[in-house]
């Protein structure tokens, strides 16, 4: 597990944590349940499929607890990135008593949006956020399932900041260090539960 950002104090007082918190061997669960799919969605890509983790009651609980742990007490809202980030963000927001902010692929949000384009391992895309969904100064934790090139969470962070809010951290289940996402995020605090080849 990565060290939290210097500005983030990990919680050590169990009473300060939400009732849903528990200790789980999260890396064992990921080793057991994460599927790797060769040449998906494009030749040469080794795709990490976390859907079996999310479908497992213990797995879902373990990753949600662990992904927010270093940031508890430091955020007002959790942002989830379409699509698998939604699952993590909604569960984590419920567990920590916060709300969930929706960051979607282009063309899905009905009101005025900010948009950010980005590149990822297998293409390019655009993310959007409603211009009025975030209060200026809000402290936002961004969650997604995988950090690869960092294009996706980087775009999400820029959207949060265009709303005048602050990104206090980025939480991901899996980090693929070979694709350089952490470096591309320019010092933003990143917490990953497992690094994989
Ligand atoms: O660090 P990056 O290189 O940006 O890659 C990571 C992103 O790629 C995957 O999403 P994908 O774009 O495949 O979309 P999906 O969740 O809609 O399937 C994954 O869920 C992350 O959001
Ligand atoms: N190898 C990978 N597995 C899962 N999601 C990804 N997003 C970008 N690269 C990915």
TrEMBL record:
<feature type="domain" description="Phosphoribosyltransferase">
    <location>
        <begin position="71"/>
        <end position="176"/>
    </location>
</feature>
<comment type="function">
    <text>Catalyzes a salvage reaction resulting in the formation of AMP, that is energically less costly than de novo synthesis.</text>
</comment>
<keyword id="KW-0808">Transferase</keyword>
<dbReference type="InterPro" id="IPR029057">
    <property type="entry name" value="PRTase-like"/>
</dbReference>
<dbReference type="Pfam" id="PF00156">
    <property type="entry name" value="Pribosyltran"/>
</dbReference>
<dbReference type="InterPro" id="IPR005764">
    <property type="entry name" value="Ade_phspho_trans"/>
</dbReference>
<dbReference type="InterPro" id="IPR000836">
    <property type="entry name" value="PRTase_dom"/>
</dbReference>
<keyword id="KW-0963">Cytoplasm</keyword>
<protein>
    <recommendedName>
        <fullName>Adenine phosphoribosyltransferase</fullName>
        <ecNumber>2.4.2.7</ecNumber>
    </recommendedName>
</protein>
<comment type="pathway">
    <text>Purine metabolism; AMP biosynthesis via salvage pathway; AMP from adenine: step 1/1.</text>
</comment>
<dbReference type="InterPro" id="IPR050054">
    <property type="entry name" value="UPRTase/APRTase"/>
</dbReference>
<keyword id="KW-0328">Glycosyltransferase</keyword>
<comment type="similarity">
    <text>Belongs to the purine/pyrimidine phosphoribosyltransferase family.</text>
</comment>
<comment type="subunit">
    <text>Homodimer.</text>
</comment>
<keyword id="KW-0660">Purine salvage</keyword>
<dbReference type="GO" id="GO:0016757">
    <property type="term" value="F:glycosyltransferase activity"/>
</dbReference>
């Amino acid at each position: 597990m990565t060290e939290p950002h210097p500005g983030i104090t990990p919680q050590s007082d169990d009473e300060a944590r939400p009732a849903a918190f528990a200790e789980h061997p999260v890396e064992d669960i990921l080793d057991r349940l994460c599927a790797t799919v060769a040449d998906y969605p494009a030749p040469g890509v080794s795709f990490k499929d976390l859907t079996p983790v999310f479908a497992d009651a213990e797995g879902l609980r373990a990753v949600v607890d662990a992904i927010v742990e270093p940031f508890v007490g430091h955020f007002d809202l959790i942002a989830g990135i379409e699509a698998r980030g939604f699952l993590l963000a909604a569960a984590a927001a419920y567990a920590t008593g916060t709300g969930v902010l929706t960051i979607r692929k282009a063309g899905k949000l009905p009101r005025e949006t900010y948009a950010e384009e980005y590149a990822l391992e297998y293409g390019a895309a655009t993310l959007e956020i409603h211009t009025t969904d975030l209060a200026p100064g809000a402290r936002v934790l961004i969650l997604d399932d995988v950090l690869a090139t960092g294009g996706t969470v980087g775009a999400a962070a820029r959207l949060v900041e265009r709303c005048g809010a602050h990104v206090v951290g980025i939480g991901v289940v899996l980090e693929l260090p070979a694709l350089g996402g952490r470096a591309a995020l320019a010092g933003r605090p990143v917490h990953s539960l497992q690094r994989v080849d």
